[in-house]
Model the fold of this input.
Amino acid sequence: MDLFGPTSVKSLGRKSYCLVVINDFSRYTWVFFFSTKDETTEILKSFILRVENESITRQISAPRTPQQNGVAERRNMTLIEAAITMLSDAKLPITFWEKAVNTACYVQKRILIVKSHGMTPYDIWHKRKPFIGFLKPFGCQ
Done:
């Protein structure tokens, strides 16, 4: 997991921080947005409870190696770069950064292939193919 912020511009929802959590095996990614850094603990507690309540038999562990931290850092950069590109292409103001990062995460879980498994993170995590027929270009009316 990795936390970035505070951003220079607050989002429309008045958020300044983003926490990115990545499953080490499947590379399935969750993003959480919040206004202040001290909200991190509550977000992590509710996330862990949600995953446990879904009765998913997956092991969750804290990052312990520099390589795992590197995965989170690279995913952050990928999400940020995708968000900047989407905002620029849609000619939207930077205050939409939260929506753009969330959309980038959503799409990447469904289209990026995990080389070692030959499947998307969504396939691995949910054990089924995602439906993406409803997706539209970011920023469309």
Summary: The first strand starts at residue 2 and ends at 4.
